[in-house]
């Protein structure tokens, strides 16, 4: 799912417009639909609202080359450490390899690499949605940055994405100093609200956040930070993304990249006001940190692009898929392939998507 550089436009943000869009902390104006604590697998999550598409997480302050940075922690490769922190236990994160060593001084972490949130995110769909006419991620980082960190050379790997930089005010409208999924941030209370994505695993609806991607086009779609070095990471597991599922904003069978491009307001910057209208491609996660497959979970996903065959579309088999086992059965029946009829498999793109909560749904 690589998008060529000719489609990626680097646009500079106008500093003169910053004052009109800066906000220290915004308060949701949508009706709350708080999720019960039993459904929340990321125990540090303060609040999860699947209707507003929001999660409130603890925010941590650090430094990077003298600059203030703000980060979250979602996963740990060590079981005891994960339990102590209240984050997800992800043993495969220990095999990521692409990590940065951070030094802890006086309780604050000193990062080496830090994302640049200044670029202007741009997404222009084509007439068929995907691939787009243009895609430009709103945040990018060089090889010095990885969300996966080791503190003082420890063997434990933490998933600790940086989500904002500076001392504020924080731009949560056009995201010039915050990640594109940040909807509000309160450095005094040490909390951050982020946009949720909806997907499925084994027939259950799953809520997660996307923080980094190794491909610029995918980073744009996910409203994530573009980190090309993650393409070389280990410890990843399959994520099934449909290329050509059904479309339609009100279609319950809609799924995939064409649906995301045409129906989910991908061209808009995420804000607290429009968050309930920002739907996701409805991807399928092959393991989540709950139930029998918990030990196989990793927050790092190896993107597999699935495509319905013309025959399957003609026979109306191209229905919403929620279970990875069903997808593989359809592959066996040749109703689903990879792009252009190729075998279903990894396309070389990696995304960091920590799971937040699991909803019980019919399969």
- Overall average residue pLDDT: 91
Quote the distance from N terminus to C terminus. 28 Å
Count of beta strands: 25
Number of helical regions: 6
Could you characterize what this model shows?
It is a single chain. The protein is mainly β. It has one domain. Helices cover 11% and strands 30% of the residues. The chain has six helices and 25 strands. The protein has helices at 18-21, 79-85, 216-222, 257-263, 310-314, 324-332, and strands at residues 47-49, 54-58, 60-64, 67-71, 75-76, 88-89, 100-105, 108-111, 122-126, 129-136, 148-151, 158-159, 162-165, 182-186, 191-195, 197-201, 204-208, 212-213, 225-226, 237-242, 284-285, 300-308, 336-337, 346-352, 355-359. It has a nine-stranded mixed β-sheet with strand order 6-5-12-11-7-8-3-4-13, covered by helices on one side. Strands 18, 19, 20, 21, 22, 23 and 24 form a seven-stranded mixed β-sheet that branches. Residues 1-31 have low confidence and may be disordered.
Tags for this entry?
single chain; 363 residues; mainly beta; 9-stranded mixed β-sheet; 7-stranded mixed β-sheet; 6 helices; 25 strands; 11% helix; globular
Summary of the model, kept short:
By secondary structure, this protein is mostly beta strands. It is built from six helices and 25 strands.
Could you outline the blueprint of secondary structure elements for this entry?
Blueprint: H1 18-21, E1 47-49, E2 54-58, E3 60-64, E4 67-71, E5 75-76, H2 79-85, E6 88-89, E7 100-105, E8 108-111, E9 122-126, E10 129-136, E11 148-151, E12 158-159, E13 162-165, E14 182-186, E15 191-195, E16 197-201, E17 204-208, E18 212-213, H3 216-222, E19 225-226, E20 237-242, H4 257-263, E21 284-285, E22 300-308, H5 310-314, H6 324-332, E23 336-337, E24 346-352, E25 355-359
Parallel strand pairs: 3-8, 5-6, 7-11, 18-19, 20-22
Antiparallel strand pairs: 1-2, 2-15, 3-4, 4-13, 5-12, 7-8, 9-10, 11-12, 14-15, 16-17, 17-25, 18-24, 20-21, 22-23, 22-24
């Amino acid at each position: 799912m690589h998008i060529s550089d000719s489609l990626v436009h680097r646009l500079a943000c106008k500093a003169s417009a910053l004052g009109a869009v800066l906000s220290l902390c915004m308060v949701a104006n949508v009706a709350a639909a708080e999720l019960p604590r039993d459904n929340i697998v990321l125990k540090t999550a303060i609040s999860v609202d699947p209707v507003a598409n929001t999660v409130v997480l603890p925010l941590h302050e650090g430094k990077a080359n003298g600059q203030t940075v703000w980060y979250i922690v979602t996963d740990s490769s060590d079981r005891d450490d994960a339990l102590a922190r209240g984050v997800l236990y992800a043993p495969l994160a220990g095999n990521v390899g692409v990590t940065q060593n951070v030094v802890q001084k006086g309780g604050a972490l000193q990062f080496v690499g830090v994302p640049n949130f200044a670029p202007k995110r741009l997404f222009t769909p084509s007439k068929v949605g995907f691939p787009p006419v243009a895609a430009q991620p709103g945040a990018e980082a060089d090889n010095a940055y990885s969300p996966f960190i080791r503190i003082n050379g420890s063997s434990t790997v933490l998933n600790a994405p940086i989500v904002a930089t500076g001392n504020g005010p924080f731009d949560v409208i056009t995201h010039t100093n915050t990640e594109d999924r940040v909807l509000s941030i309160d450095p005094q209370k040490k909390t951050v609200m982020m946009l949720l994505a909806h997907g499925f695993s084994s027939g259950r609806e799953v809520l997660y956040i996307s923080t980094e991607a190794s491909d610029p086009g995918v980073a744009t779609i996910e409203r994530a930070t573009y980190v090309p070095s993650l393409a070389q990471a280990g410890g990843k597991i399959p994520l099934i993304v449909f290329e050509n599922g059904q479309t339609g904003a009100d279609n319950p069978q809609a799924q995939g990249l064409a649906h995301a491009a045409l129906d989910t307001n991908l061209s808009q910057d995420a804000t607290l006001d429009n968050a309930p209208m920002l739907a996701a491609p409805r991807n399928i996660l092959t393991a989540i940190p709950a139930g029998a497959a918990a030990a196989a979970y990793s927050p790092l996903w190896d993107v597999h692009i699935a495509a319905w065959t013309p025959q399957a579309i003609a026979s109306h088999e191209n229905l919403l898929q929620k279970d990875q086992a069903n997808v593989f059965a359809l592959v066996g029946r040749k109703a689903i392939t990879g792009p252009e009829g190729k075998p279903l498999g990894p396309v070389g793109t990696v995304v960091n998507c920590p799971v937040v909560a699991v909803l019980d749904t019919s399969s």
